[in-house]
């Protein structure tokens, strides 16, 4: 009998030990699960804050509305815009529409401060020098009429000035026949430029880096 009691005691002790071990494993698992959950939340919060920080200081995104920059950019394509770029002639920039509230325009810089800009016989002249515009070739090749793709103009004809004023830029849309641009809205202040379009990231099959 004493032997059986010892056996029973050992069995009970073993069962209690296994139960304690199981409970301990569950507590460890719950603690680990909670730690992982907190870690995931922390990572998500940091990622959101980092995104806002980067967007505020370094880049933003925008969506193309309309066809004024076709064929370079089409309606509803999405762009990454660098806020740190030093913009120059022929860069594609984003800026608030001066004549429409809560709207952004996307155009190409044609004239920088001091430039004399004119178009004659469908040829762009900057400071008296003819410039090729390869970004217009696709549309020009598709024309079925003999009308110019870009009507003749000069800055003096449009605004009564010979050159782009200091601190401003002259912009045009690539779709010259259907673009509301510098010919209508005037010069764009450097201070109003949001940034330079650097990457077309959507749609994915048309991913492109602009340089």
Layout of helices and strands:
Elements: H1 2-57, E1 59-63, E2 78-82, E3 92-96, E4 104-111, E5 117-120, E6 123-126, E7 129-131, H2 137-142, E8 153-154, H3 155-159, E9 168-172, H4 182-185, E10 188-189, E11 195-202, E12 208-209
Antiparallel strand pairs: 1-2, 2-11, 3-4, 3-11, 4-9, 5-6, 5-8, 6-7, 9-10, 11-12
Strand residue percentage: 25-35%
Q: Which fold name corresponds to the CATH topology of the largest domain? A: Umud Fragment, subunit A
List the total number of helices: 4
**Helix-strand makeup class:** alpha+beta
Q: Total domains, how many?
A: 2
**CATH architecture identity of the largest domain:** Ribbon
Shape: elongated
Summarize model confidence as the mean pLDDT.
86
Order of helices and strands: HEEEEEEEHEHEHEEE
The CATH fourth-level homologous superfamily of the largest domain? Umud Fragment, subunit A
Q: Name the CATH class of the largest domain.
A: Mainly Beta
The largest β sheet comes out as: 8 strands, antiparallel
Number of strands: 12
The helical percent reads: 25-40%
Using the CA coordinates, give the radius of gyration: 32 Å
Ends apart, CA distance between termini: 93 Å
Low-confidence stretches: 3-9
Give a quick set of tags describing it.
Umud Fragment, subunit A, serine-type endopeptidase activity, 12 strands, disordered N terminus, alpha+beta, 34% helix, 4 helices, protease, 211 residues, eight-stranded antiparallel beta sheet, four-stranded antiparallel beta sheet, 2 domains
Can you put this structure into words, describing what you see?
The protein is of the alpha+beta class. It has 2 domains: 1-57; 61-209, Ribbon (Umud Fragment, subunit A), CATH 2.10.109.10. It has helices spanning 2-57, 137-142, 155-159, 182-185; strands spanning 59-63, 78-82, 92-96, 104-111, 117-120, 123-126, 129-131, 153-154, 168-172, 188-189, 195-202, 208-209. Strand 5 and strand 6 (123-126) form a beta hairpin. The longest helix has 56 residues, at 2-57.
């Amino acid at each position: 009998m004493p032997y059986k009691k010892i056996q029973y005691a050992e069995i009970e002790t073993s069962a209690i030990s296994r139960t304690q071990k199981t409970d301990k494993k569950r507590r460890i698992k719950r603690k680990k699960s909670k730690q992982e959950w907190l870690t995931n939340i922390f990572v998500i919060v940091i990622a959101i804050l980092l995104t806002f920080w980067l967007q505020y200081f370094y880049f933003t995104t925008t969506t193309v509305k309309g066809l004024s920059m076709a064929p370079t950019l089409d309606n509803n394509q999405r762009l990454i815009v660098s806020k740190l770029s030093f913009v120059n002639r022929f860069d594609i920039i984003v800026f608030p529409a001066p004549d429409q509230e809560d709207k952004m325009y996307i155009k190409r810089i044609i004239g920088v401060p001091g430039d004399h800009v004119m178009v004659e016989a469908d040829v762009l002249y900057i400071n008296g020098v003819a410039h090729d515009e390869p970004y217009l070739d696709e549309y020009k090749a598709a024309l079925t009429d003999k009308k110019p793709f870009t009507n003749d103009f000069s800055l003096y004809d449009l605004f009564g000035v010979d050159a782009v004023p200091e601190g401003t830029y002259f912009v045009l849309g690539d779709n010259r026949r259907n673009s509301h641009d510098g010919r209508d809205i005037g010069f764009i202040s450097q201070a109003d430029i949001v940034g330079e379009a650097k990457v077309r990231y959507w749609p994915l099959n048309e991913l492109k880096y602009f340089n």
